[in-house]
Write the structure tokens for this entry.
Amino acid sequence: KPVLGGGLVHLTFTVEWSVPLARSRIKAIWPADKPLHFRSKELDLKPRVETSGDSTVYVWERRNEAPVIAQPNLPPDIPAYGYIEMSSTTDWQDVVDVTLPHYRLDKELPAAFVARLDTIAARFPKPDDRLVETSRLVQDDIRYVSLSIGSGSHIPRPPAEVLASGFGDCKDKSLLLATALARLGITASVALTDIDEGPALRDRLPGIPLFDHMIVKAVIGAEVYWIDPTVYLQGGRAEDLAPPTYGYALPLERTGAQLEPIPSKPLLKPTVSVAETFTFPDAAGAPLTLGVKTTYLGAAADTMRYRLRRESIAKISDDYVRYYNGQYPGIRSVASLQTTDDRDANVVIVAERYELTADDLAADDLAKDFPLKGDFGLTELPTPSRVGRTAPIWLGHPFFKQHKSSVQNLKARFSAPADSEMVASPFAILSTVTSATDTTFEVTWNFITLTDRIPAAYLGKYLRTLDEMSENSKWTFDFTYVAPSTE
């Protein structure tokens, strides 16, 4: 017996498999006086329809079907295998109507929590500031613990119970946040979504089983804000909060319910910027030093802030040392990681310091064949096989990263490569800018992806472009130390 439903039915049946299929048969018996809505995805499969008394019988049948080889890196709205979907409704309002009674925002709040909300109201007269402070209150102070057993799979606990226990899942925290915002005079509602398949919701028939997550929609004037209360330590003020990347959501609103897109913010500047400064020794026998400053903005800052809370500085530092040892064998950290966090601006900065001894610098002629590598996310992009590929390739949500390497104290008459170069394609752009003096050299890589997917027909060009970009991100130079003349 479903926890929620109110007579709604939504079922999905896979009709393609990774093994040969001798026969599959799906039979649905449905009241003749009620419509059954259905569609097939990734294949054109229509049912045989018969009438039997007061029922209509729908039968989907397939025989002797070859196996379907799943293709990796599929967009979330492209299923690996075809399916048949059935629903008793085509109106999202029907889904809202059976869910909304459990998410009314008139729930009682404990006096101690109301006092905290009153403090926020007194300190922050602007609604958008109240939105941020209240969101942080729920995100940071209520631990995320999933209770998905029995009625807990769909029905939230009362806010007072959530506050008393100090924990809650997405349902609990969303209802608590929306209730708190409403008490502060902000229009808010709980919204249904799906973490992984949210972008596919627009192609589905309405149904409760489509959703696995809940967030909050808040409206202040003409601005709409989407808040995920399960995010921990989110930064930024209202104007630059990083929205969830779930694609679509269904707000639980009394009338006019429909799926709404969750817009992403334009990438106007890099969200991760790495700045390396290599300083070659002033004299023979002295070490090379390396300083690294990494700046994280927006969602990248949220991710790094959480990592800094979840992992020890020693663990993160060890990961970084291992990374640089892969390029400069023998390099060692000479200072603990230094971090700064401006949560309101949503900027996290991590600073590192390393040394490479003169012996390690001389080993294997490292200075003569010195590597500089732009680490800006190329390895995060998929490289699927072209064999049998027919589906688009999912590149993930677009990102913009920068990597800058500066080298100081070089030998005289250093000759730099061309001052700029660009590898452009419909999916991404890599620009490389260099500058040099007699004793310094600097290279800056900027990499931005332009889309979340590419068509299968473009895969060959895509892979060749990735190779070209990879070649342009790994350079070696002769930085052999030359003592200055004493004449």
